[in-house]
């Protein structure tokens, strides 16, 4: 697979999601690492558009679920309905049976409905009515989340946050990007005209190439030192888990791959670290800022 393909994906997506090339690149790195992505921001900044653009460009089957407070797990997984012709119950798959699932406003659903995604995100399968059913491959979840202070939200528990390899924020566009948005074509028309650049098989090839990027022993020492520092730091209520360490390594490999390198550098780890660790680290005091804590934490660990 030519190294120009991932760059072209980011370039094409940037024509729809204006002024957010870095966030698009992080999102693509997350998908190449085989993880799931959480996008947290206020409504109307392009979270759904980003997910739709990636699905189109990657040639993936796409379903969207609008999470609401009255949603049930069966609305996500599916339900069995009695078939009179067969004389038996027949399972009707829910929208989770897709390749790229957009869980829109995931924190507007109750914890019971949110938990329906846990097995799917970790095991790539769902269990319904005593039977386990595999999900399509590849399977990615992009969830959007409104800020927790907004009305009608239910905070995601730590166990579910840990299932997301990255969390990013889009933020408001700068003045030039917003002017281009106001003068440009409707985003829905651009999405409809967007052709896929790769298919599922090519995406699997990209994932294998990203996973093969070399990580030296010195880089592993650096990752371990960062994780150990998070566990010792009194600023954090709890440190990073072994799953988080694996996530840092996988995300750094994907970022290095997107940068066209065959080995991971310390800068790659530092670039992806806020997105990978920020939602996993809890401040010991509510007065402390999460972003500031992550920035200070990185400076306490020496570069290899």
| Strand neighbour order, sheet with most strands | 2-5-8-1-9
Task: Indicate the structural class.
Answer: alpha/beta
Number of helices: 14
The residue fraction in helices comes out at 40-55%
User: First CA to last CA: what distance?
Assistant: 31 Å
Q: Tell me about the biggest sheet?
A: 5 strands, parallel
Average residue pLDDT: 88
H-E string:
HHEHEHEEEHHEEEHEHHHHEHHEH
Identify low-pLDDT runs: none
Radius of gyration: 20 Å
Give the tally of structural domains: 2
CATH topology of the largest domain: Rossmann fold
Topology, number of strands: 11
CATH superfamily annotation of the largest domain: P-loop containing nucleotide triphosphate hydrolases
In the CATH hierarchy, the architecture of the largest domain is: 3-Layer(aba) Sandwich
What is the overall silhouette? globular
- The CATH class label of the largest domain is Alpha Beta
Strand content: 15-25%
Description:
- The protein is an alpha/beta fold and 304 residues long.
- It has two domains: 4-69 and 98-109 and 135-205, Rossmann fold (3-Layer(aba) Sandwich); 213-299, Helicase, Ruva Protein, domain 3, CATH 1.10.8.80.
- It has helices spanning 4-14, 21-32, 47-57, 73-77, 111-114, 118-123, 158-161, 175-183, 187-192, 200-211, 217-232, 242-258, 266-277, 290-299, and strands spanning 37-40, 62-66, 78-83, 88-93, 100-104, 125-128, 131-134, 140-145, 166-168, 236-238, 282-283.
- A hairpin with a 4-residue loop joins strand 3 and strand 4.
- The mean pLDDT is 88.
